[in-house]
Automatic annotation (TrEMBL):
Residues 6-185 form the NAD-dependent epimerase/dehydratase domain. SUPFAM superfamilies: NAD(P)-binding Rossmann-fold domains. Transmembrane segments: none annotated. InterPro entries: Epimerase_deHydtase (IPR001509), NAD(P)-bd_dom_sf (IPR036291). Belongs to the NAD(P)-dependent epimerase/dehydratase family. This is NAD-dependent epimerase/dehydratase family protein. The lineage of its organism: Bacteria, Pseudomonadati, Bacteroidota, Flavobacteriia, Flavobacteriales.
Length: 341
């Protein structure tokens, strides 16, 4: 029996690496990974080099695809520049996320026209849903003002839908696991409805989808953890702070934005789950995993230094800094009229 040839991009990322591990565990696929050559990608991929073909390259340079063995049966395209870097350097996000996707599709159309193209999009394409938190695939795509990442995903989705390949698109909810604290923590309003999915469940959706092409073909799905993975953002932070020994969520007024972010509850998440049966984890599973990561020593040290840690975090808050500087343009971006200073 000839093994299906699977191509994965962005394999050194959190979801990509989980996809790789699950595919290797199945031991029934011929795997090629395409990723930029970095210390991280070398460290992650070297232990598996005898089980797959590694192609190091730059997705913005079409010539780098020439080393990919063809034909390719399935492509799981996860490579992307994500926030906050996507917001800080939108030109780079456009080059990698949009132009890179276009380059890859054009290469496949020429060299692997029968490939099934699985594209990873984002909940960010729906924009600010604080007032209307329940989201369906059929909802309009209205990205938040200044969300360069969402803009690249919307443009890429259009390119995918207009390509000659067989395709499917998964719009990922908030993927929680191995994430790092950044200034984005303060961009998200505290009253945001938050639905998460673990990297393992997210990867499982792509991996299980390989054998479900007939049911996924030319369709778009919302990928989230469902009812048992939902929580208000303020409550999510409170529980996270408690796990890490940081005490209460006692930041000053205007530390968190009121608007112009994204996230919400996927009202139609079950549509994808019924096909690929990816959901194994709940929100409580996520918090249990986080607790296991934090040793008593780390938690005690964080508790001892919680005030300077919170002071450092607050300095990362762009809404708060805009408030302190009385930067009217940024204040208008982050805050509603009734809550502006």
């Amino acid at each position: 029996m000839v093994k299906k040839h699977i191509l994965i991009t962005g394999v050194s990322g959190t979801v990509g690496f989980e996809v790789l591990k699950q595919l290797i565990d199945k031991a029934c696929y011929d795997i090629t990974v395409f990723d930029k050559k970095t210390k991280t990608s070398i460290r992650k991929l070297t232990p598996y080099q005898d089980k797959l073909k590694i192609v190091f390259g730059d997705i913005t340079d079409p010539k780098d695809f020439d080393e990919i063995k063809t034909p390719v049966d399935v492509v799981i395209h996860l490579a992307a520049i994500i926030p906050p870097l996507a917001d800080d350097v939108p030109e780079l996000a456009q080059q990698v996320n949009t132009q890179g996707t276009k380059n890859l599709i054009e290469h496949l159309e020429q060299h692997a026209p029968n490939a099934f193209f699985m594209y990873s999009s984002s909940i960010s394409v729906y924009g600010d849903r604080v007032k209307t938190p329940y989201i369906k695939v059929t909802d309009p795509l209205v990205p938040s003002e200044g969300d360069a990442y969402a803009d690249t995903k919307i443009a890429s989705e259009k390119r995918v839908q207009n390509c000659k390949l067989n395709w499917t698109i998964f719009r990922l909810a908030a993927i929680m696991g191995n994430h790092k604290v950044s200034k984005l923590m303060f961009h998200q309003p505290l009253n945001t409805a938050l639905e998460i999915a673990t990297p393992q469940d997210t990867a499982r959706a792509f991996v299980n989808g390989i054998e479900k092409q007939n049911l996924l073909s030319k369709r778009i799905f919302n990928l989230g953890g469902g009812e048992t993975c939902r929580i208000g953002y303020a409550h999510f932070l409170e529980r996270s702070f408690a796990i890490f020994g940081l005490g209460k969520l006692d930041f000053p007024h205007h530390a968190f934005a009121d608007k112009n972010f994204h996230c919400g509850y996927y009202a139609d998440w079950e549509d994808l789950n019924k096909i690929v049966h990816f959901r194994h984890h709940t929100l409580e599973d996520y918090f249990k995993t986080e607790r296991r990561k934090v040793s008593s020593f780390k938690k005690n040290m964080a508790s001892l230094f919680r005030r300077p840690i919170k002071w450092y975090l607050l300095k990362q808050s762009e809404p708060y800094q805009a408030f302190k500087r009385n930067d009217i343009t940024r204040i208008n971006h982050f805050f509603n009229q009734n809550s502006k200073p």
